[in-house]
Amino acid sequence: MDWLTTTRQALQLLMTGDASLWAIIFVSLKVSLLAMLIASPVAIALGYLLATVSFRGRRLLIQLNQGLLASPTVVIGLILYLLLSRQGVFGSLHLLFTRQAMVLGQIIIALPVLVAFTLSAVQGADERVQETSLSLGASRLRAALTTLAEVRFGVMAAVFSAFGRVISEIGCSLMVGGNIAGLTRNIPTAIALETSKGEFAEGIALGFTLLAVALGVNASLAFLQGEGGLR
Question: For the chain, where are the alpha helices, taking DSSP H only?
């Protein structure tokens, strides 16, 4: 195999705007961004509550969330498959092999990452921030937002890390999405398919794209943290 020629072909596919290639990229971005948009507010709020409110079962929830961090995405996909299949509890919704099912799977994958990072960030915050806000007459919601603003870089790290995890996962997307061309085929599933077919040019092009997204996410986080450090 001539890797130089294959790489040149991959770059040509990207530069010439190959329709099928960019359709795959669009599916990945749309599904992952939507999943993050839904998961982030819920998970950040839950992470904040776990860090600041004492209640029965709190430690168990934290330990459960820590365990979910290591859950294989293919297992999450399998559970969702069983729930969404025709004989499953939610089979009547007809969500299996749709983008909605992929979004649901990625929400579940992102949640523990977002909760864990937010919990850690809030626990590391100065307790006087919340106490001062409350003593000055701020509502509990306003005090919570003030605390989250203080640890915004930790929260941003949570969001960026979760996004990197969901856009690159393959197990869940393959299980509940079905890798259907033009509908649920995203970057990771397409790379696996094209490579197995011997279509290395398209696989490399998609690999470059995924790598560029990952590097862009990390660079954005580093830039924002650096800017914050200059203030």
Answer: 3-15, 19-52, 58-69, 73-84, 99-123, 127-135, 140-150, 152-168, 171-177, 187-197, 200-230
Domains and CATH numbers, the chain: 19-230 (1.10.3720.10)
Q: What is the DSSP letter of 93?
A: G
Q: Concatenated DSSP letters for 117-179?
A: HHHHHHHTS-HHHHHHHHHTT--HHHHHHHHHHHTHHHHHHHHHHHHHHHHH--HHHHHHHTT
The reported pLDDT for the residue numbered 188 is: 96
Question: Could you tell me what percent of the chain has a pLDDT over 90?
Answer: 68
Residues in the chain, total = 231
State the residue for tokens 């990072």.
117
pLDDT at 1: 56
Cα 3 to the chain's mean position, in Å?
32
For residues 13-42, average pLDDT = 94
Q: Answer for the pair 64, 136: CB distance below 8 angstroms, yes or no.
A: no
Look at residue 141 in the predicted model and tell me its pLDDT: 85
pTM of structure = 0.91
